[in-house]
Amino acid sequence: MALANKATVYNECASKNRFLLIDSVHFKNTKDSVMVVTVDDYDSCLGSHPIFFFNNSDKWVRLDW
Questions:
Q1: What is the pLDDT of residues 22-57, one digit of tens each?
Q2: Smallest Cα–Cα separation from 27: which of 13, 43, 48, 37?
Q3: Domain count, the chain
Q4: Which domain holds residue 62?
Q5: Longest dimension (CA), the chain
Q6: Which residue did the predictor score with more confidence, 14 or 41?
Q7: Are 55 and 21 in contact (CB under 8 A)?
């Protein structure tokens, strides 16, 4: 899936669901990376200092920060 399509999928999912701080998100990625960044870094498209980072793994991430 192209990068733009992945962004669309995540944005559509987020707009249709209400997430709580006790929820978890399951990332089934084999080739991609996932980063958690601050709002400011997201808005500036900066990923040099992520809060959380993983790649090439099957990962559950709890939304608790």
A1: 898 888 766 777 888 899 998 998 889 998 888 877
A2: 13
A3: 1
A4: 20-65
A5: 30
A6: 41
A7: no
